[in-house]
């Protein structure tokens, strides 16, 4: 099929490359001319496992191309995905200006039947708004489809190629059938394609993210209570997760959730529920617990050292989670800023996020080229992101590099007993 994908970010680029991989002709559109130039040179501007190979292969096979010209892409395509950002607006609601702007432009330039697909995460009712906007701009027939994306950054290509499910919100059979045909190659192992009304599809995405965020905040509270009673959250987590009604994933305590989705999607769901006079109380608590959790490590550091003024603190991990370079809403931002506010000197290392970190912290912190370099002369190490390479380090080497052998582990990647044996003062979450 002939496809256009508008917005070539974490979602749009993965979507475009994966659809090209199954034989479709895909034009990726972005308004960021520098990004398009980079992509045309065969360079992928984000870190996502396997994406560069996929983009290069499909570009070489001429199934994938990049442009800044939306109109050209609309004319050449049957199905147009909108995968632009829906950032948080000032009142917590999702800012739809990019989505609606693109929809209007599609309406103006389409010259025959088109399927317009909302891939961006958008509040309930957005498909209806998009439909009304396009209807105002064109007399040609069209279908509007809601197709929320559930991929995880860090495993985005794999998630897209092998989804747990595909959700399609459609109000007419023509659009639904084309979408089912497009997704069939990705669901051969039996993953369901769920066709439903647009409102349910739109809400499914928010409900999924909000439930995952709820699990995280819930377990962070359990971890905090574990500390008060001398219980071990690892034991509790295993006992709870063994229950098949609960399951084992998303039960790890830490320093709070971040990223481009959970924080803004939780806020948006609270907000659009409030628009219908519904007070989503659980989610308000999820949010405030998360804000508090981002500060627990620095509070522990202060309790240990008294004052952090003049202390050198090494930070391992800046990205909001491993296997991505993304620092949007990362707990590391709150933690590093709090350390700087307390007068500490920060030496940070992240395998992929340093470029993004420089745009946030500038020269206020130092950036180590290697994980061990960050430890030189450090009074303590703070672990914020659980990258694989931090899991089995050379503890003797670490101890020799540090001024004092103190570790605050925000991701529970080491065992307290093991750390004691290695001669470290070790503090983690809920143990
Ligand atoms: N990142 C994720 O893991 C994830 C997962 C599922 C859903 N989503 C949702 O997908 C959407 C996109 O997220 P993302 O992380 O890919 O965002 P992103 O910021 O990485 O990418 C958005 C891209 O859209 C481009 N853009 C904005 N306005 C444009 C316009 N008018 N014309 C052309 N291009 C335009 C931007 O330049 C940018 O490259 C959001 O609604 C997000 O909530 C994201």
Mind explaining what this structure looks like?
The protein is of the alpha/beta class. The protein contains 17 helices and 14 strands. It has an eight-stranded mixed sheet with strand order 3-2-1-4-5-6-7-8, with helices on both faces. The chain has a six-stranded parallel sheet with strand order 11-10-9-12-13-14. Helix 15 (354-361) links the parallel strand 10 and strand 11 (366-367). The longest helix has 32 residues, at 198-229. The protein starts with a strand and ends with a strand. The relative contact order is 0.09. The model has no long low-confidence stretch (mean pLDDT 97). The site of nicotinamide-adenine-dinucleotide has 26 residues, from helix 1 and helix 5.
Summed up, what is this model?
The protein has 431 residues and is α/β, with parallel strands linked by helices. The chain has helices at 10-21, 33-40, 51-60, 70-76, 97-109, 126-137, 156-161, 173-183, 198-229, 233-241, 262-274, 281-293, 296-305, 331-341, 354-361, 395-401, 416-421; strands at 2-6, 25-29, 64-67, 79-82, 114-118, 142-146, 166-170, 193-196, 312-316, 345-349, 366-367, 380-383, 406-409, 425-427. The protein has an 8-stranded mixed beta sheet, with helices on both faces. A 6-stranded parallel beta sheet has the order 11-10-9-12-13-14.
Low-confidence stretches: none
Number of strands: 14
Q: Tell me the strand percentage band.
A: 5-15%
Share of residues in helices: 40-55%
Estimated structural class: alpha/beta
Count up the helices: 17
Quaternary structure classification: single chain
Name the overall outline: globular
Rg, nearest Å = 23 Å
Ligands, ions, cofactors: nicotinamide-adenine-dinucleotide
How far do the termini sit from each other?
54 Å
Largest sheet: 8 strands, mixed
Strand order of the largest sheet: 3-2-1-4-5-6-7-8
Mean pLDDT, nearest integer?
Answer: 97
């Amino acid at each position: 099929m002939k496809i256009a994908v508008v917005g070539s970010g974490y979602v749009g680029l993965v979507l475009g490359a994966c659809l090209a991989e199954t034989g479709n002709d895909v034009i990726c559109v972005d308004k960021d001319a520098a990004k398009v130039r980079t992509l045309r040179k065969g360079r992928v501007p984000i870190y996502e496992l396997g994406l560069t190979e996929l983009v290069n292969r499909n570009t070489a096979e001429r199934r994938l191309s990049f442009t800044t010209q939306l109109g050209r892409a609309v004319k050449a395509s049957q199905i147009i995905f909108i995968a632009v950002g829906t950032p948080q607006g000032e009142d917590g609601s999702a800012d739809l200006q990019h989505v609606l702007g693109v929809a209007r432009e599609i309406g103006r330039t389409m010259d025959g039947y088109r399927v317009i697909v909302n891939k961006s995460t958008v509040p309930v009712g957005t498909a209806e708004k998009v439909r009304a906007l396009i209807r105002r701009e064109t007399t040609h027939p069209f279908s509007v489809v809601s197709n929320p994306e559930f991929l995880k950054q860090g495993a985005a290509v794999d998630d897209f190629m092998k989804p747990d499910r595909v959700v399609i919100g459609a109000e007419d059979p023509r659009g639904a059938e084309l979408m089912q045909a497009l997704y069939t190659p990705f669901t051969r192992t039996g993953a369901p394609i769920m066709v439903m009304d647009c409102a349910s599809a739109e809400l499914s995405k928010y409900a999924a993210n909000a439930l995952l965020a709820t699990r995280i905040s819930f377990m962070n509270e359990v971890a905090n209570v574990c500390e008060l009673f001398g219980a071990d959250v690892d034991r509790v987590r295993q006992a709870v997760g063994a229950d098949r009604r609960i399951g084992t994933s998303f039960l790890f305590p830490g320093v709070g959730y971040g990223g481009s989705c959970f924080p803004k999607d939780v806020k948006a769901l609270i907000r659009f529920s409030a628009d219908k006079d519904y007070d989503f109380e659980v989610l308000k608590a999820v949010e405030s617990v998360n804000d508090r959790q981002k500060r627990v490590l620095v509070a522990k550091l202060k309790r240990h050292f008294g004052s952090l003024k003049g202390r050198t603190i090494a930070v391992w991990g800046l990205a909001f989670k491993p296997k991505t370079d993304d620092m949007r809403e990362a707990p590391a931002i709150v933690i590093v800023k709090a350390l700087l506010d307390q007068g500490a000197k920060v030496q940070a290392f992240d395998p992929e996020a340093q470029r993004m970190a420089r745009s946030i912290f500038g020269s206020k912190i130092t950036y180590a080229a290697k994980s061990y370099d960050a430890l030189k002369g450090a009074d303590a190490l703070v672990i914020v992101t659980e990258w694989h390479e931090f899991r089995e380090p050379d503890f003797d080497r670490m101890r020799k590099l540090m001024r004092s052998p103190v570790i605050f582990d925000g991701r529970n990647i080491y065992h307290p007993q093991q750390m004691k044996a290695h001669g470290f003062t070790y503090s983690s979450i809920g143990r």
